[in-house]
Specification:
It is built from ten helices and 15 strands. It starts with 29 loop residues before the first helix and ends with a strand.
């Protein structure tokens, strides 16, 4: 089944045409409208940049799952290893009958290890921007939790799973609106996704998390500063999966917004910016071209780029300092022997207070 490009319902004038769409931007879905607005804004300014959250439609999420299994891409493999070794130590710091909230849930494999180690977890709330991928991941999680070796209190009948499709970058309180806490809240922010934020955005996110998780804690993954050659390989894999993931943003614009990007006209560029301690990903135009997005035309010269992602790298000390500024009390840190990646326990000192209201979200009960 094919669908009409969303921009056929967007009212954006073509600056090189005498015609204008007669339909309304408001008729598009919220995610599509946001994507259209942000992409147009990105191409209307210099330097051109857009949030990496738009990588994660269904196709982009599947590509990222493939990236996580690549030999060059160490963060997922290393973080999984840390959790295999230390999940019980982490869970020992958590109170029984708690809820675990994962921001940017992805495949849920790492959260599943924490849930297996927790004592009588009451609820798991995975939040992700890609609803289709989230639903598939929840289905896989339910199978994982009934495998041999799962603690009895984490098995079906004891755990409520409430998947939420939302853009948590627009506000954690908004993402969880109508879902009051039922016990101590613990957050999980995996994969060094914190590195995709600017420093100011990261501080703002952590402040929101400290408020949301009052009386609980945040379990935070951070990618550590290391040899740039290791970083370069991780973001420029031999199979070209990361390049396809990067270009998928343009493919998504073609699918959803009726844009006319020619994907082969853009090169994947990823490099380590040492003074800023970050990997940058760009899509660089290989020739001069005119592109069309939602009725707007934009000119790109050869060599100009769209900045699609930052991935900031941390020292253990810099991550702890950032968390402390946000109101957390930094606690234990777990890392691998080579110190490529770190998992932090960040305690939120404010007491948990129940408001006594019921849950208004639909949920999946494991039975």
């Amino acid at each position: 089944m094919t669908s009409m490009p969303a921009c056929e319902s967007l009212c954006v004038a073509d600056t090189d045409s005498s015609t204008e769409s007669q339909t309304s931007l408001a008729s598009a879905s919220d995610p599509t409208r946001s994507f259209a607005q942000d992409l147009i804004r990105a191409f209307a300014q210099l330097p051109r940049c857009i949030s990496p959250k738009y990588f994660y439609d269904a196709q982009g999420s599947q590509l990222f799952d493939r990236i996580c299994e690549l030999p060059e891409y160490y963060p997922t493999r290393i973080e999984r290893g840390i959790l295999r070794e230390y999940a019980c130590d982490i869970a020992a710091l958590m109170e029984p009958n708690a809820e675990l909230i994962e921001f940017g849930a992805g495949s849920l494999q790492k959260a599943g290890r924490l849930l297996k180690a927790m004592r009588r977890p009451a609820r798991f709330v995975p939040i992700d921007i890609s609803g289709d991928h989230l639903r598939a991941s929840v289905s896989s999680l339910t199978e994982f939790l009934v495998e041999p070796g799962t603690a009895r209190e984490s098995r079906p009948g004891h755990l409520q799973i409430v998947p939420i499709t939302a853009d948590y970058t627009r506000g954690l309180v908004q993402a969880l609106e109508g879902l009051p806490a039922i016990g101590p809240r613990y957050g999980y922010f995996a994969g060094s996704t914190i590195g995709n934020f600017t420093p100011d955005e990261a501080l703002d996110f952590l402040r929101q998390a400290a408020e949301l998780l009052r009386g609980g804690a945040l379990i935070l993954g951070t990618d550590l500063i290391k040899d740039p050659a290791v970083l370069h390989a991780a973001y420029n894999d031999a199979q070209g999966v990361t390049a396809a993931f990067n270009r998928n943003l343009l493919a998504r614009a073609n699918r959803e917004l009726g844009a006319d990007f020619v994907l082969d006209d853009y090169a994947h560029s990823a490099f380590y910016n040492a003074p800023e301690n970050r990997i940058e990903m760009h899509l660089m135009a290989l020739r001069r071209q005119t592109i069309r997005i939602c009725g707007r035309r934009f000119q790109l010269r050869e060599g100009e780029s769209l900045h699609t992602e930052n991935s900031y790298k941390f020292t253990i000390e810099s991550a702890r300092a950032l968390a402390a500024r946000a109101g957390f009390t930094p606690g234990p840190v777990w890392t691998d022997p080579a110190r490529l990646f770190a998992v932090h326990w960040l305690q939120s000192p404010r007491k948990f207070v129940s408001n006594g209201r019921g849950n208004t979200h639909s949920s999946i009960h494991l039975a």
